[in-house]
Every structure is written in structure tokens, then in C-alpha cells.
Amino acid sequence: MKAQFMLAAMATAIVSAQYLNQTDPFALQLESSDADVDGTYLYACHAGAAIEGLCVGSTDTPSADNNSATFYHNYSTAWSMDDSPVGYLTWNLPFTGANGGVETASSPMVLTYNPVSNVAIPEMMPQSYGIATLFDSEGTLGIVSSSDDSSNNSTDRPVQEAEVLYSWYACYSFVGGYYYHALAWVTAGEPHNPSCVAVDVVRSFVQRINAVVRNVDLNRNIEVHQTQTLLEALQNRHPPVHAHVTEFWSSADNLKRETFVGIQHQTAGGTFPTLRLSTSVPKWHLATNPDVNPLKSMQVPAAFVLLMTPKYYAAAISKGLYDPANPRKFQKTINETDKLDKIVKDRIFRAEACHNNALESVGLYAAAVVAGNTAGIPMSTMNNLSVGYVASRTAYMVVYVWLQDNRRFAPLRGLFWGVGIALIWTMFIKAGLRV
Ligand SMILES: *[C@@H]1O[C@H](CO)[C@@H](O)[C@H](O)[C@H]1NC(C)=O
Ligand SMILES: *[C@@H]1O[C@H](CO)[C@@H](O)[C@H](O)[C@H]1NC(C)=O
Ligand SMILES: *[C@@H]1O[C@H](CO)[C@@H](O)[C@H](O)[C@H]1NC(C)=O
Ligand SMILES: *[C@@H]1O[C@H](CO)[C@@H](O)[C@H](O)[C@H]1NC(C)=O
Ligand SMILES: *[C@@H]1O[C@H](CO)[C@@H](O)[C@H](O)[C@H]1NC(C)=O
Ligand SMILES: *[C@@H]1O[C@H](CO)[C@@H](O)[C@H](O)[C@H]1NC(C)=O
Ligand SMILES: *[C@@H]1O[C@H](CO)[C@@H](O)[C@H](O)[C@H]1NC(C)=O
């Protein structure tokens, strides 16, 4: 009895509770044995003034900026069933605010009933309450019912027990004043509307974009990481970019390598809503892959060119003793010849040794670059580390091959070798910290 009373109290509470915790945005996709609706996405369709239905769209993954296909789940920690929080399915209705900018109004889903039918129509409108819903561990949308009136006996009222129901259908129906192919809910029994086919409604989160945004005008790079909103990234710039942006999201399979984004700057007296994906305002350049920097993609090739330099140099100063057909015999030939003086011979030997040392180092370096790029180390950090590595290896080579004609320079070589290794390990450690 006590448990039943508590459930009843919770069911009442949902009417007055505030559901202000909100999930990340997601798209809603239908699963059905009916081929016409299986795999389609739902989108908010106009059903009246500030009222939207949930219409059956196409099977194409909605693009990140498609507001009508972007939904949220508002919940509170106060009520959950099987670890799934209960709350409202919400959609953000855009409207023009007082200052002329676009604002949004959170619109929870409710069910509207048709007196002649058991087919109820979900509608979303700006208000503070909706129907209790949850997404179960499979991401499937259910409605929470707190009592089932199908049973009654002479001793007791219907059992009051919270229960998750999945009675979704896709039907051709009036939604407000419009006739649509839309999501519907069948209260009990077989659908009264013969066009209805059973569906499941499954959510798929859109991803926070991991992007590099480059202001083409100012040529300033802004890196946005998974832990950061674009707005934070802009504000963390030095000097900060004063832009008022709504968060930018993208669905995974919809990421394009390069997309133009328009961001309007905040101006005195007015704010703008504003991250808009747009090809018409190519002011900001966005690429999902930080590899866009040409310097970065040249890092490894540059190291290989550097690696071969002492080898070619040794061959060049050997007065034709280098035999491309038998490179391994080169050392022995040099050792035995009397055509070269000792300084040149030693230099050739050091050039060979320098080349061998570079061979050992470059593999580790290439792996570090891959690790760093994969982990999403900021482009400028990677460039700096790489430039540092190539510079330290260049210095190492100069000391080893030329300066070491004089033995006193030997410690300097060790120093530059250490710098190169330290930079490689910096890449690995930074990559490790980000994963
Ligand atoms: C949903 O949560 C957001 C974020 O807290 C809030 O702004 C919005 O008003 C909530 N919507 C409803 C219907 O409670
Ligand atoms: C929900 O919101 C409350 C108040 O803002 C916060 O204390 C709580 O940690 C949030 N819970 C979750 C699961 O986000
Ligand atoms: C938004 O997504 C829905 C569902 O996939 C689709 O029907 C609609 O055409 C899209 N709208 C825009 C503007 O792309
Ligand atoms: C009537 O309902 C109560 C509550 O569910 C149940 O305990 C009882 O067994 C039922 N009686 C009969 C005769 O079905
Ligand atoms: C339904 O339950 C109520 C309360 O226990 C009881 O008074 C009534 O007779 C029941 N009706 C039927 C048809 O069983
Ligand atoms: C170079 O020649 C010397 C003597 O001619 C010999 O002792 C030495 O082992 C040779 N070194 C190489 C690398 O062939
Ligand atoms: C990379 O080097 C440039 C030029 O010295 C500097 O402005 C920038 O802050 C460095 N970036 C990082 C992440 O250290």
C-alpha cells in the first residue's frame, strides 16, 4: 500500500515538476517492419500557431543545423525507472525575439486526443509541462503510465503501478489543421485509423563537433575540442572573439570535410543567435579534420628529407667512390682508399652514422605525429613540436657532420639529440593525456 501511495504521489508530481536538466541534442529515427517508414527520421512539422506535429521525414540523416529534426529530453534526477530518467521530449521552437534575433522556446510533447478514435496525436508547443516519457537503455522512446484501468475487481481499484508503454504508430492523420504522415500513439487496442503501422522511436545523439574554425579574413585559427563548445573556444582566444553563438552540433555520418559556417559577431546593443551553417556567409571556414594545415602534413616528409641529407652529402664528397649498386660496401671502400684525406674520411663516417641515428629516430617521430594527430592535439602545438623536432635534428646533423671535425663540439650533438627525443615524448604524453 505504501509503495502504491508513493507511486501515486510521483505521478501527480510530474505535473508540477520542473524538468530543467537537458540531454544533448538527438535525432529521432523510426524502426518498423513496414519498409515505407523504417529508417525514416522525425521532424517538427507545422500544425498551427506555435504548434508542431512529429512528421515522418526521409531516411537521410538530418544535417546538424536542421533544427526541425533536433530534439532533447528534459528530465530531473527526481524520477527514473530502471536507471532511465523520466521527463519530457522537447523541441526548440525558433521565433524572432524583441531585438530581431532568433530565440527559441522549449516545446514539450503532449498527446492530443480525438474523441472518435484511440489514435492520439503527439504535438509540441511552448508550455511548461508535457507527457511523461523516457528513453530506455536501448534509446527507445516510451511513455510512462501510472495506472492501467483495464482491471477492476470487487475488492480493489485498478493497480496503480508505473509502467513504460511503447504504443507508437506512423499514421496518415490530421495533425492540428494539417493532414500529414505523422507519429501517433494508440491508447489501447488496434488502431482505429487503418493507415497506422507500428513503429519504435529511437534516438541517436548528434555529436559535438571537433573542429578547427579558421577565420579566413583574419587568418586566425580557432580549435574546438570535444570538451569545449565553439563559444568557449572563441572566448578563449587571445584576444577573445566576441561572438554570440549557439552550440554547433553535427551528426557523425553527416560531417563534411569542409563546411562554411557563418558567425555573426556580437555588436553593441544587440546580440545575435548565431552559429549558422551557411554557404552564403563564407566568413568562417570550418574543417572537421585538423589536418588542414599544410605545414602539418609536411612534417613527416620533411623529416625524411632531412634523414637522407647526410647520406647524399657523404656520397657527394666521396669523389665518386660511392657505388649505388653496392651501397653497403661504401664504408669499406672509403676506409681503404687513399684518394681522400682523413678529415673527409671521418666526415663521411660521421655522415653515415648521423643517417643511421636519424633512421632510428624518425620512426618514433612518425608514430608520435600519428598519435598526436589522432588524439587531437591542437594544430599549433603539433606544428610547434614538429618544427622543433626538425630544427633539433637539423642542428644535430650540422654538429655531427661538420662541426665535429673538431672533437670539442661532441657534447653539443648529445644536447640536440636529447631535445629531439624530448619533443617526441612530449607528443606521446600530450596525446596520452587527451585520449
Ligand atoms: C528544458 O531544459 C532547458 C534547459 O534547462 C530549459 O531552458 C527549458 O525551459 C526546459 N523545457 C521545459 C519544457 O521545461
Ligand atoms: C540536474 O540538475 C540539478 C540542478 O541544476 C543538478 O544538481 C543535477 O546534478 C543535475 N543532474 C544531472 C543528472 O544532470
Ligand atoms: C530536416 O530533416 C527532416 C527529417 O529528415 C527532413 O525531412 C527535412 O527536409 C530537413 N529539413 C531541412 C531544411 O533540411
Ligand atoms: C483484486 O485486486 C487486488 C489488487 O490487485 C488483488 O490483490 C486481488 O487478488 C484481486 N481479487 C481478485 C478476486 O481478483
Ligand atoms: C470496481 O472496483 C470498485 C472498487 O473496488 C468496486 O466497488 C466495483 O464494484 C468494481 N466494479 C466491477 C464491475 O467489478
Ligand atoms: C678500416 O681499415 C682499418 C685498417 O686499414 C681496419 O683496421 C678497420 O677495421 C677498417 N674499418 C672498416 C669499417 O672497414
Ligand atoms: C606556437 O608557436 C607560435 C610562434 O612562436 C606561438 O605564437 C604559439 O603560441 C605557439 N603555440 C603553442 C600552442 O605553443
Automatic annotation (TrEMBL):
Organism: Zalerion maritima
Matching SUPFAM superfamilies: MAPEG domain-like
Any one annotated GO CC term: membrane
Pfam family, one: MAPEG
Signal peptide segment: 1-17
InterPro entries: DUF7907, MAPEG-like_dom_sf, Membr-assoc_MAPEG
UniProt key word Repeat: no
This protein's name: DUF7907 domain-containing protein
Annotated DUF7907 domain residues: 24-203
UniProt-annotated location(s): Membrane
Cell wall biogenesis/degradation as UniProt keyword: no
